[in-house]
Specification:
InterPro entries: DUF1104, DUF1104_sf. By secondary structure, the protein is mostly helical. It has 7 helices and no strands.
Length: 164
């Protein structure tokens, strides 16, 4: 009887350990399409790993390919979160920010610099889903800046946004 209990408890313990390791998601082995389909679905505590993988992949892409990939991520994130109430969406965003902040706190400065993680969003108020779908690359937010341009440098799309 003792050996049966010992065997049963060993099986339960092995199952728990396997379950814990199985819950750890590796985004490295997923295709770009699989990552796109996961946008907006990833559990908040796994978002730091997800965003770091997106950052690594986008670093290796050309500008046009990066923009297309980000657009696909945004579209998928919009689709996957469209039925959430704003309360649910805001709770998710806060949980994601907390997970990213906790992850950053455990990194060295060098790791942080190469991670692509940031607790700051681009202040798009969920228009580009930078906090859900990875780093913002849309460039449409008209960020103001006080920096003087070099002579001959022209403003393009955001020319009138500096005038107040």
């Amino acid at each position: 009887m003792k050996s049966v209990k010992l065997g049963l408890s060993s099986l339960i313990l092995a199952g728990l350990c396997t379950g814990l390791w199985a819950n750890e998601v590796s985004f490295k082995n997923k295709s770009n399409q699989e990552l796109i389909e996961l946008a907006g679905k990833v559990a908040p505590n796994e978002v730091p790993d997800y965003q770091m993988e997106l950052f690594k992949r986008m670093k290796g892409m050309g500008a046009e390919q990066k923009k297309e990939f980000h657009d696909q991520l945004k579209k998928a994130a919009d689709k996957n979160t469209e039925n959430m109430t704003m309360e649910e969406f805001e709770k998710r965003r806060e949980a994601i920010r907390a997970a990213i902040k906790a992850r950053i706190a455990k990194m060295t400065r060098a790791e942080y610099k190469n991670s692509g993680l940031s607790v700051k969003s681009c202040n798009c108020h969920a228009r580009c889903n930078c906090d859900v779908a990875g780093p913002c690359t849309c460039g449409k937010h008209g960020h103001k800046h006080d920096r003087k341009h070099k002579p001959g440098h022209e403003h393009h799309e955001h020319e009138n946004k500096h005038e107040s």
